[in-house]
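Example record

One chain of 126 residues, shown exactly as stored in the release files.
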Amino acid sequence: MTTQIRQREFKYKQVIAVRLDLGMSRGKIAVQVAHGSVSAAERTRVTNQDVLKAWLREGQKKVAVKVQSEEELKELRRLAANNQLPFALIHDAGMTELPPGTMTVIGIGPAKSDDMDKVTGDLKLL
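Predicted structure tokens for this chain:
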């Protein structure tokens, strides 16, 4: 029996980039990714409610990618801003594994997938 998986076309997506150089535990990474996703979605709610509604309606596609440094997160922030994409840069509160203020992830979008790919399309999946 052959099973086919239907590929669903998403017009919108969100990307969350995670710093791997910090040595965060899996649980810590999961929580930081959640912070990045929710915070970036909130920014989109403020800047473009129609995009947020469309992204929610079609299934909230999210992609987690990896970076190796704070500098890479800052470059993604610059590219997101230059491309007018909503973003949220997350700094840890310092209550568990990291010093307070450590930059851990950036959530970008949701936005149109084509626009997101211009900024994040070359990043490797987490």
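Notes: The CA atoms of residues 38 and 103 lie 16 Å apart.
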